[in-house]
Design a protein that fits this description.
49% of the residues lie in helices and 10% in strands. It is an alpha/beta fold. It has a 6-stranded parallel β-sheet, with helices on both faces. Strands 3-2-1-4 form a 4-stranded parallel β-sheet. The longest helix is centred in the C-terminal third of the chain and has 18 residues.
């Protein structure tokens, strides 16, 4: 063994033992003696990849390939690093190079499948996963990824079969339990899903993802009491919010002051849905302070029971106890039967005349029960930063099936990046754009008050319309959020809401066809 190969062997041993700084030093010693040593370049790139230095890893993998162009592992890992960086086209090229050099490589087929699926080439991805399984049927990740792709295609029966196989091959893997359980839950087999998650949590009691999947299954099945009992500690354990004051336990306040706050990272819809509990908190005999984001301040002035409103980020006044608004369903032991669904609990703020200072109530379309054209507000997109926005938001183009309904005038309440779809030159949408006039949720409430109906995907506007007791049609993805429960067309949270659900994943066309039929029927009733 040469001195150089001995040095490389020592570096690899340190690497395998987890002594990364020493391994890095030894790899660099090798490269100082032989700068184009392909193995050392690749392994140093692998080390950089492991510690999250993607740019450094990519540069080293490329140097290894310059020294040895047919280095399979370097092509594969360079593809993985480029994929993590978001360059799917370049990643796919490297995976294809691996398969050109070694067509029987199952892992490269899996990696290429993942990249193709992210790129939107679902059928090509499925073919790659299937080939990987033919090459090596005992790879659990091949079955799991095929399950993901089949579920995306809407083939739940086959997806569940492959998730079951993945679990058989890797019975101690948390992700295998979770994949199968979530697919079962989405198909309505909630009891089996919860039992599976119970077993997985006994194996991995600290796994937050498993706990989150179990509490979601309970909530979406309507077991609000147990679901919220799990949701509260699970959520608070992940929260970055901290106070020196104690958390409220739901007991009588006896004149004490309480701060209700929206947790960092929670959405406007969460705050709007759960601010309904503020009057109930006030009934416990306390002085209620609410901290909320600036866009909610004027809207929440209309909520009964709130003594003080504070903009998030502003200095907080003194208070005795505190609670997240998301904890209130748990603290009030909420069940399906006891949801506080007395609406409206939010209102359009009265308008103040700029010259006289006098107040007047906003006009409300509900005062006119029978009129044409119907005034309908629409929202098709949610928060683009939401993890599930690609599932919850519907392309505006899909709304075409009902936008030309005779006897209806449509108004866009859309805000944010999705609003650019309204400016498309490809489609001519018969929509009046109100979005630019809406500076906060009080403005949106004032707009909603003038409408007969709101049609919205799962957004804060849907919650606001429901909280105002305005008729609202909520368009839901196949795997909808837990708060909309399962297979219901109504909502215990919002009595004036009607739910329109996808029958299959991504099938917005069917949802919009349902809306078109319902809207035509509503016009005929006027």
């Amino acid at each position: 063994m040469t001195i150089l190969s001995e040095l490389l062997t020592r570096a690899m041993q340190q690497h395998q033992a987890g002594h990364l700084p020493e391994a890095e030093r030894l790899y660099r010693d090798v490269l100082q003696q032989q700068p184009d040593q392909a193995n050392a370049l690749y392994l140093l790139g692998l080390l950089a990849h492991q510690v999250g230095n993607l740019a450094g890893a990519i540069a080293l993998y490329e140097q290894a390939l310059a020294a040895q162009p047919n280095y399979l592992e370097a092509h594969n890992n360079l593809g993985a690093a480029l994929q993590q960086q978001g360059d799917l086209t370049a990643a796919i090229a490297h995976y294809q190079t691996v398969l050109r050099l070694n067509p029987e490589n199952p892992n490269a087929n899996i990696n290429l499948g993942v990249a193709l699926q992210k790129q939107g080439s679902l059928e090509a991805a499925i073919a790659r996963y299937q080939k990987a399984i033919r090459l090596n049927p005992s790879l659990p990740e091949a079955h799991s990824n095929l399950g993901h792709a089949l579920k995306e295609r809407g083939d739940f029966e086959q997806a569940i079969a492959h998730y079951r196989t993945a679990l058989q091959l890797a019975p101690n893997t948390p992700e295998a339990h979770r994949n199968l359980a979530e697919a079962l839950e989405e198909q309505g087999w909630t009891d089996e899903a919860i039992a599976l998650l119970d077993h997985a949590i006994t194996l991995h009691p600290a796994n937050i993802q498993l706990q989150g999947s179990r509490l979601r299954a309970k909530l979406i099945a309507g077991d609000l009491r147990d679901g919220f009992a799990e949701y509260d500690p699970w959520r608070l354990a992940r929260s970055s919010q901290s106070f020196t004051q104690p958390m409220w336990d739901g007991s009588e306040l006896n004149g004490a002051s309480i701060l209700l706050y929206a947790e960092p990272g929670s959405g406007f819809g969460d705050a709007i849905q759960f601010i309904r509990y503020a009057p109930l908190v006030a009934q416990r005999g306390g002085r209620v302070m609410v901290e909320c984001e600036e866009p909610l301040l004027r809207l929440f002035e209309t909520v009964q029971g709130i003594d003080t409103l504070i903009a998030a980020g502003s200095p907080l006044p003194a208070f005795d106890v505190q609670a997240s608004v998301l904890s209130l369903p748990y603290l009030f032991a909420t069940t399906l039967e006891t949801v506080p669904a007395i609406v409206p609990y939010l209102h359009a703020a009265p308008k103040r005349d700029a010259e006289t200072g006098t107040l007047s109530a906003p006009s409300d379309a509900l005062h006119s029960q029978s009129r044409l054209p119907l005034q309908v507000g629409i929202v098709w997109g949610g928060d683009p930063n939401h993890l599930n926005d690609h599932e919850r938001s519907c392309p505006l183009e899909k709304f075409r099936s009902f936008l030309r309904t005779p006897g209806v005038t449509f108004y866009s309440l859309q805000k944010g990046t999705h609003s650019v779809e309204l400016l498309s030159k490809v489609y001519s949408f018969p929509i009046q754009n109100w979005g630019d006039r809406l500076n906060d949720f009080a403005d949106t409430a004032a707009a909603i008050a003038t409408l007969d109906l709101v049609i919205s995907v799962d957004t804060a506007v849907a919650h606001l319309a429901g909280a105002m007791a305005k008729p609202v049609w909520v368009l839901l993805s196949y795997a909808a959020d837990w708060r909309w429960l399962k297979q219901r067309q109504d909502s215990p949270w919002y009595p004036t809401a009607q739910l329109f659900r996808q029958p299959r994943p991504h099938d917005w066309a069917d949802v919009c066809a349902q809306v078109a039929q319902a809207l035509d029927h509503l016009v005929k009733l006027q």
